[in-house]
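Entry 12.
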Amino acid sequence: MSGVAPYAALALLGVFVSGVSQVLLKKSAIRGHASRSREYLNPLVITAYALFVLATLLSTLAYKVIPLSMGPILDATGYLYVTGFGVTIFKERLDRRQALALCLIIGGIVIYALGV
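Predicted 3D structure (C-alpha coordinates):
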Protein backbone atom coordinates (compact mmCIF):
# COMPACT_ATOMS: atom_id res chain seq x y z
CA MET A 1 0.00 0.00 0.00
CA SER A 2 2.97 2.34 0.52
CA GLY A 3 3.51 2.49 -3.26
CA VAL A 4 -0.02 3.84 -3.58
CA ALA A 5 0.53 6.73 -1.15
CA PRO A 6 2.37 9.06 -3.56
CA TYR A 7 -0.33 8.52 -6.17
CA ALA A 8 -3.06 9.12 -3.60
CA ALA A 9 -1.28 12.38 -2.75
CA LEU A 10 -1.23 13.18 -6.47
CA ALA A 11 -4.99 12.58 -6.64
CA LEU A 12 -5.53 14.80 -3.59
CA LEU A 13 -3.42 17.50 -5.21
CA GLY A 14 -5.60 17.24 -8.32
CA VAL A 15 -8.75 17.65 -6.23
CA PHE A 16 -7.20 20.66 -4.46
CA VAL A 17 -6.18 22.25 -7.78
CA SER A 18 -9.74 21.70 -9.02
CA GLY A 19 -11.05 23.49 -5.93
CA VAL A 20 -8.74 26.43 -6.55
CA SER A 21 -9.97 26.65 -10.13
CA GLN A 22 -13.57 26.73 -8.89
CA VAL A 23 -12.67 29.66 -6.64
CA LEU A 24 -11.18 31.51 -9.61
CA LEU A 25 -14.32 30.91 -11.66
CA LYS A 26 -16.52 32.19 -8.84
CA LYS A 27 -14.35 35.27 -8.38
CA SER A 28 -14.70 35.99 -12.09
CA ALA A 29 -18.46 35.38 -12.01
CA ILE A 30 -19.10 37.91 -9.23
CA ARG A 31 -17.23 40.66 -11.11
CA GLY A 32 -18.90 42.82 -13.70
CA HIS A 33 -17.72 42.41 -17.29
CA ALA A 34 -17.94 44.87 -20.16
CA SER A 35 -18.97 42.23 -22.69
CA ARG A 36 -19.82 38.56 -23.06
CA SER A 37 -16.40 37.84 -24.56
CA ARG A 38 -14.60 39.54 -21.65
CA GLU A 39 -16.70 37.48 -19.28
CA TYR A 40 -15.22 34.28 -20.69
CA LEU A 41 -11.86 35.51 -21.94
CA ASN A 42 -10.28 37.05 -18.88
CA PRO A 43 -7.21 35.94 -16.91
CA LEU A 44 -9.21 34.36 -14.05
CA VAL A 45 -11.30 32.17 -16.34
CA ILE A 46 -8.39 31.17 -18.54
CA THR A 47 -6.27 30.30 -15.50
CA ALA A 48 -9.17 28.36 -13.98
CA TYR A 49 -9.61 26.24 -17.10
CA ALA A 50 -5.86 25.65 -17.32
CA LEU A 51 -5.98 24.45 -13.71
CA PHE A 52 -8.88 22.13 -14.58
CA VAL A 53 -6.72 20.59 -17.30
CA LEU A 54 -3.88 20.18 -14.79
CA ALA A 55 -6.27 18.59 -12.27
CA THR A 56 -7.46 16.15 -14.92
CA LEU A 57 -3.89 15.20 -15.80
CA LEU A 58 -3.03 14.67 -12.12
CA SER A 59 -6.09 12.49 -11.62
CA THR A 60 -5.30 10.48 -14.73
CA LEU A 61 -1.77 9.83 -13.50
CA ALA A 62 -3.03 8.89 -10.04
CA TYR A 63 -5.63 6.45 -11.38
CA LYS A 64 -2.89 4.47 -13.07
CA VAL A 65 -1.89 3.18 -9.62
CA ILE A 66 -4.55 3.86 -6.98
CA PRO A 67 -7.38 1.35 -6.65
CA LEU A 68 -10.56 2.45 -8.37
CA SER A 69 -12.43 2.12 -5.07
CA MET A 70 -10.19 4.80 -3.53
CA GLY A 71 -10.98 7.42 -6.17
CA PRO A 72 -14.40 8.57 -4.93
CA ILE A 73 -13.06 8.82 -1.39
CA LEU A 74 -10.23 11.09 -2.52
CA ASP A 75 -12.61 13.09 -4.72
CA ALA A 76 -14.90 13.63 -1.72
CA THR A 77 -12.19 15.76 -0.12
CA GLY A 78 -13.05 18.37 -2.75
CA TYR A 79 -16.20 19.20 -0.76
CA LEU A 80 -13.99 20.00 2.22
CA TYR A 81 -11.68 22.22 0.17
CA VAL A 82 -14.48 24.10 -1.57
CA THR A 83 -16.37 24.63 1.69
CA GLY A 84 -13.19 25.85 3.37
CA PHE A 85 -12.53 28.24 0.49
CA GLY A 86 -16.13 29.48 0.60
CA VAL A 87 -15.98 30.20 4.32
CA THR A 88 -12.53 31.81 4.31
CA ILE A 89 -12.39 33.59 0.95
CA PHE A 90 -16.02 34.43 0.24
CA LYS A 91 -17.15 34.78 3.89
CA GLU A 92 -20.00 32.33 3.32
CA ARG A 93 -21.83 31.02 6.37
CA LEU A 94 -21.83 27.34 7.22
CA ASP A 95 -25.24 26.23 8.49
CA ARG A 96 -26.03 23.16 10.57
CA ARG A 97 -27.00 20.96 7.63
CA GLN A 98 -23.81 21.78 5.77
CA ALA A 99 -21.70 21.12 8.87
CA LEU A 100 -23.45 17.78 9.36
CA ALA A 101 -22.88 16.88 5.72
CA LEU A 102 -19.17 17.68 6.05
CA CYS A 103 -18.97 15.55 9.20
CA LEU A 104 -20.54 12.65 7.30
CA ILE A 105 -18.01 13.09 4.49
CA ILE A 106 -15.12 13.16 6.96
CA GLY A 107 -16.57 10.12 8.73
CA GLY A 108 -16.74 8.22 5.44
CA ILE A 109 -13.14 9.11 4.62
CA VAL A 110 -11.99 7.98 8.07
CA ILE A 111 -13.93 4.71 7.86
CA TYR A 112 -12.41 3.99 4.45
CA ALA A 113 -8.91 4.91 5.68
CA LEU A 114 -9.23 2.62 8.69
CA GLY A 115 -10.42 -0.20 6.49
CA VAL A 116 -13.53 -0.79 8.56
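Annotation: The longest helix spans residues 5-29. DSSP finds five helices and no strands in the chain.
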